[in-house]
Amino acid sequence: MAYQDEITHMRRDELEALQLERLKKAVVYCYENIAFYKENFDAVGFDPYALASFADLEKAPFTTKQDMRDAYPYDLFAVPKEDVIEIHMSSGTTGVATVSGYTAHDIEVWGDCFARGIGYAGGGPEDICHVCYGYGLFTGGLGAHYGGLKAECMTIPMSAGNTKRQIKVLDTMGSSIICCTPSYAMYIADTAIEMGLDPARDFKLKAGIHGAEAWSNQFRENLEQKLGYKALDVYGLTEIMGPGVAMECLEQDGLHVAEDHFLVEVLDPETHEPVPDGEWGELVITTLDKEATPVIRYRTKDITRILPGECKCGRTHRRIDRLHGRTDDMMIIRGVNVFPSQIENVASTFPEIADWYQIELTRENALDVATLKIEVNPDFPIDEIRRIEDLQKRLSTALRDELATSIKVQIVEPYTIKRSEGKAVRIVDLRDDADK
Ligand code: DLL
Predict the structure, then answer these.
(1) With a threshold of 0.90, does the pTM exceed it?
(2) Best of 237, 252, 303, 344 to mutate for ligand 1, by most ligand atoms within 8 A of CB?
(3) Separation of 181 CA from ligand 1 center, angstroms?
(4) Which residue among 24, 160, 311, 431 sits deepest, i.e. has the most Cβ atoms within 10 Å of its Cβ?
(5) With contact defined as beta carbons under 8 Å apart, do 115 and 150 qualify?
């Protein structure tokens, strides 16, 4: 039996009844305890006491990141501060930070959700859970940590950084599940290989639980090959709950949403109408039983779709597809929408190419230009101009065929793109502010 199997295998009708019961309470709870929701519901005439079906929720207004910023620091808290036992904050690099609070109940739920994901990875008390997401205001470290404790793993709170020490621990202590961003997993794998180790053989990893940034299927394959394990995806966000809102199982066919705690909608980002299952749109999340900072209809700006049908693993919680990226990260290159992960998908099929890249955005003659700066593998003859030109040409052609727009390609030397211990910086925007 894996952690909370009885919940992750609930009959759909029972699960939906539980969701509806919790949803009814959640809208009333927000209305009665948070002035923002009272004002916003009243403004559009949404009566929380009258909600009788999931469809009724469509009449409720959205909550946006800007609303959360405006509420800084405590205006969206539903409980007095003495009931809050932990807070997290977004980095605030693109504006004012958003603050999210947790009561003791909320922390329990968070640990449960991540622990289920450890179960999805085939893990349990016999496992050693190596957490190298950053600990701190970022939710990655503590979220994975609470999951490790709940799943009764031996949990190693490494935090991010000090890569050589991570490798020493992985090599000697038998870590079997590693939790970090996919780019940090790649950094660790590449550094270990550079140090003369074969991580697929020398480490004892059976699974990785990776998220916080978009990563392509090809990047995943490269990771699995280097580390000899199963790399699984995990989704979460500061404003709702850290990692564990949705997690992938060993089928690697989408992420099961913790539907007993979160209600998800996928909407057309322009019209805000729901799209049918299977179609891509913006993910909108409502917390069903969060106490400290409950949220109704949060517009995540993340693009995904509900995967129709049942998962082969037998769990009943619906799945969202792996994220393409955020609407914010979408580039419009000569009229075509492009996500960095699509570029990554094409580039990482080239054996000469390493998994490190950055996309520079500039503006030439009133048009946005994307230049892919990408490293070759250390064994590539970087001094042979012909070989470089040939590779550049083949890669640009492959990108044009796949994306229907042109991306400039610039091959760079190994180890010249800055490595990241947390979220990788994939887009460097060099356009003037006025151009954006
Ligand atoms: O990144 C929480 C997290 C930590 C998730 C560890 C998974 C693992 P924030 O820093 O608030 O929280 O960033 C949230 O990151 O809206 C997505 O755009 C992106 N993101 C998170 N998980 C994934 C994923 C954490 N699996 C924002 N795939 C979200 C793609 C992801 N993007």
Answers:
(1) yes
(2) 237
(3) 9
(4) 160
(5) yes
